[in-house]
Design goal:
The complex is a heterodimer. Chain A is α/β, with parallel strands linked by helices. Chain A has eleven helices and 14 strands. The radius of gyration of chain B is 19 Å and the shape is globular. Classes of the chains: A alpha/beta, B alpha/beta. The complex binds thiamine diphosphate and magnesium ion. The site of thiamine diphosphate has 16 residues of chain B, from strand 6. Thiamine diphosphate binds next to strand 6 of chain B.
């Protein structure tokens, strides 16, 4: 069935809520209103106030109570109205959720999900890509889908996962990206990268919105005779490095791309692992394309300037191929 | 009460011998709060989220002494495998979920534990604690408001022991009673003498009954004195001596002993004998724990996730 990225996420959650009464949702304005982005539209009518809980504007209480409920056998899904507001619940995620398996050997099966990312004029407080913080935090799984089918399959896998999962939905993709999504039960295991375009000259390793930038760049480059492979890692934790190494062994060139800022971004981790393990296959240094190290600015001219895009990826791939 | 008191005596002894590893947080002066409150719960159906000065509540919830010591001292066999120590363990079978160091962080978690049962139509009372300093953390506010809005059966005891590390009440808050905040949350609140175990028990029992009737959370401020430093490394010279002397006359364990001897519940000799055997039991348990090896270093690489 053709679905938007947003519909696919809703479809996954609806599927799981029908299947498992331990799954409930908690967030702000997710009830009758259906959520700021309408991801939970219709959920309140179907599942009622007990399973679609409208909470006060208290991110720590929302995430903390979800953790507590998960310790008591539930599988809560937490909506952050914008992923930016995770800063207000950071302590719960990092200090409590991310350490519980290690300390107590007890599962905290929560999914904290919400819209992240820029490119939509969101200002510095509604645009952040904060996935790397959580990859660095330990004990958290980090998911960044780029396509509707993956959004669904990864969401179902995340809900069924016994570890806390940070699920980053790119708000710019919500209604822009449509695709074929399997109906009913559809699971994409966490920790499996996918080669979304096969090529021989250069690998672009990306996730989230950057996958679409890379695909657009690859189209243009193919007209110049450059054959680009695009690897969508899909999840940062667990990280499927094998698929990345395989691609790099084949092409001999690696460009890492993400929408998040450059410094200490997950791209640095990917680059380091390639350098460590696939060094002898490289014909050029590993390069990165990422956002300029600033908050995401508001004015479209500024925002477009600081964020990565297909053109910046094209230029970088050209450079690598001429190295 | 004696278990709580002698646990401290034994731990202080260990600290002086240089054998304690990590901080030793005495609960001297707080015994009546931990013990009286935990007794008000039904340990088969309610749940305990203790803090760092609540060792007495672990015993009330039936924790095995040897297990507690092994956990505390992070030896092989600890329920935390050595990943953490002190009272930070969780024991789901005994319905005890320990704290993290970050003050206030476990209050929303305790609320959520009860929330899960509320969704199932069951009332599970969560009892948890915070200090006069910890009560100023933002998450406490969020958790109380959330619990009150959703009528969650949560009891939060603010243990006002006059100091937060070196910081006195006057630099932590400007209201008269910390329980006055309950009014702002639309929940029940009261401030009581935390040295009187029967009063603590009766007050908490009422809170439990309110919670079972669906009337939501309660906020109870207990007034006590932290009779030692923040932890044993701290000489607490910043605490005026006469303040300590005043509070010493209200020692929760000694006052209770006087009362039960007066009422003929136990004779002074019986109390003395019980005291001695309790301390000896504590020391023996510590010795057994210390005989155990440290956990194997490999444990450090395990269990970051439940599944990978
Ligand atoms: C969020 C946070 N900030 C700082 C600390 C360091 N710290 C640990 S205990 C403590 C004092 C706590 O005082 P209080 O809450 O009154 O509890 P008490 O120790 O007096 O029982 C401090 C500052 C911490 N654990 N958590
Ligand atoms: Mg204090």
């Amino acid at each position: 069935m053709q679905m938007t990225y947003l519909e696919a996420i809703a479809d996954a959650m609806r599927h799981e809520m029908r299947r498992d009464d331990r799954v409930f949702m908690i967030g702000e304005d997710i009830g009758p209103y259906g959520g700021a982005f309408k991801v939970t539209k219709g959920f309140y009518d179907e599942f009622g106030a007990k399973r679609i809980i409208d909470a006060p504007i208290s991110e720590a209480a929302i995430i903390g109570s979800a953790i507590g409920a998960s310790l008591n056998g539930m599988r809560p899904i937490v909506e952050m109205q914008f992923m930016d507001f995770i800063t207000n619940g950071f302590n719960q995620v990092v200090t409590v959720a991310g350490t519980t398996a290690y300390r107590w050997g007890l599962p905290v099966p929560i999914v904290v999900r919400g819209p992240s990312g820029g490119g939509v004029g969101g200002n510095p407080f509604h645009s952040r890509n904060s996935e790397a913080w959580f990859a660095h935090a330990t004990g958290l799984k980090v998911v960044c889908p780029a396509f509707p089918d993956d959004a669904k399959g990864l969401m179902i896998a995340s809900i069924r996962d016994d570890d806390p999962v940070m699920f980053f939905e790119h708000k710019g993709l919500y209604r822009k990206i449509k695709g074929e999504v399997p109906e009913g039960e559809y699971i994409v295991q966490l920790g499996q990268a996918r080669v979304v375009r096969s090529g021989t000259h250069c690998s672009v390793i990306a996730y989230g919105s950057a996958v679409h930038m890379a695909l657009a760049a690859a189209e243009v480059l193919s007209r110049e005779g450059i054959d680009t492979e695009v690897v969508d890692i899909r999840t940062l934790v667990p990280f499927d490095q094998e698929t990345v190494f395989q691609s790099v062994r084949k092409t001999g060139r690696a460009l890492v791309a993400h929408e998040a800022v450059l410094t200490a971004g997950f791209g640095g981790e990917i680059a380091a692992r390639i350098a460590d393990t696939a060094f002898q296959y490289l014909d050029a240094p590993v390069r990165r394309v990422a956002a300029f190290d600033s908050p995401t600015p508001f004015a479209p001219t500024l925002e477009q300037a600081v964020l990565p895009n297909a053109e910046k990826i094209q230029a970088a791939v050209r450079e690598l191929c001429n190295f | 009460m004696l278990m709580a008191r002698e646990f401290d005596t034994a731990m202080l002894r260990l600290y002086r011998q240089g054998k304690a590893f990590g901080g030793v947080y005495s609960q001297l002066g707080n015994e009546a709060v931990s013990v009286g409150s935990a007794y008000a719960l039904d340990r088969d159906r309610d749940v305990l989220f203790p803090m760092h000065r609540n060792i007495g509540s672990h015993f009330v919830f039936g924790q095995d002494l040897d297990q507690l010591m092994v956990n505390h001292l992070a030896r092989e066999g600890s329920q935390m495998r050595g990943t953490d120590g002190t009272g930070h363990y969780a024991d789901p079978a005994r319905r005890i979920y320990g704290n993290v160091s970050h003050l206030g962080a476990m209050i929303p978690v305790a609320a959520g534990f009860s929330l899960a049962d509320q969704l199932r139509g069951i009332t599970t009372v969560s009892l948890t604690f915070i200090g006069d300093g910890g009560a100023q953390v933002g998450e406490v506010h969020e958790a109380l408001n959330f619990a009150s809005v959703h009528k969650i059966p949560l009891i939060l005891i603010i243990e006002n022991n006059q100091y937060a590390y070196s910081t006195p009440n006057s630099l932590e808050f400007a209201c008269e009673r910390l329980s006055d905040r309950a009014l702002g949350y639309g929940m029940y609140g009261t401030t009581i003498d935390g040295t009187d175990v029967e009063l603590v028990y009766a007050t908490c029992l009422e809170a439990v009954e309110r919670a079972r009737r669906g009337e939501g959370p309660s906020l109870i401020e207990t007034r006590t004195m932290r009779m030692r430093g923040h932890a044993e490394h701290d000489d607490f010279s910043y605490v005026p001596k006469d303040l300590l002397e005043d509070w010493a006359t209200k020692d929760p364990v000694e006052t209770y002993i006087t009362r039960i001897v007066r009422d003929g519940v136990m004779t002074a000799d019986e109390v003395k004998a019980l005291r001695e055997t309790t301390l000896a039991t504590m020391i023996a348990s510590i010795d057994r724990a210390l005989e155990r090896p440290w956990p194997a270093p490999e444990e450090g690489f395990k269990n970051v996730f439940m599944s990978t």
